[in-house]
Design brief:
The chain has 213 residues and is an alpha/beta fold. 29% of the residues lie in helices and 25% in strands. The structure holds ribulose-5-phosphate. Ribulose-5-phosphate binds next to helix 2 and helix 5. Keywords: Isomerase.
Amino acid sequence: MSNANEKKLAGEAALRYVEDGAIVGVGTGSTVAYFIDALAGMKDRIKGAVSSSEQSTAQLKKHGIEVLDLNAAGPLTIYIDGADECDPFRRLIKGGGAALTREKIVAAAARQFVCIIDSSKRVDVLGRFPLPIEVIPMARSLVSREIVKLGGQPVWRDGVTTDNGNWIIDVHGWRIADPVALEQQLNQLAGVVTVGLFAQRPADVVLVGDQEI
Ligand code: 5RP
């Protein structure tokens, strides 16, 4: 089966986890786009959505799904999002679409995080996909130098500005044996807004195609 078919199946299968009356946390990316299209079929049974990006907001609104501010929505029962990599402990690399900061916030607000991926995203050890880090623009070089000291190869995602007005550094060359420790360490660097490791708060459920793993 193609990756696109697996993404579509995963997006549709995620509906199983959406309860009637829920405010649904919605991630970003091509897999989530399939989820949003599927969610439109039950839009009259949900209260609305909290979105992690301008891209997902536009798609939700196009389907007539109300998009709520997280501050008004309160705690969420469910967050659905894709990932760039997923290890056997449901720890993730995210941020390929540059939406990692809002994704991490909405994930943190949700009781259950359901991650939807195709099988190409599964790895034994995180790090084959370059790790995205969102930084305050003036700290780009400072953070990059610190990453080099930690053995990584930082590459500025030139031309990309996040929805929050920040920049992205993609770190190549790391085999991330302890993602919780690295997430904590990188979070301490001045100028780092968000690290694309979702290890301290991993996914609760991972759907690969329509199969829960
Ligand atoms: C965006 C993300 C996405 O979830 C991740 O890049 C996966 O995208 P796709 O579903 O298109 O493969 O983290 O910041």
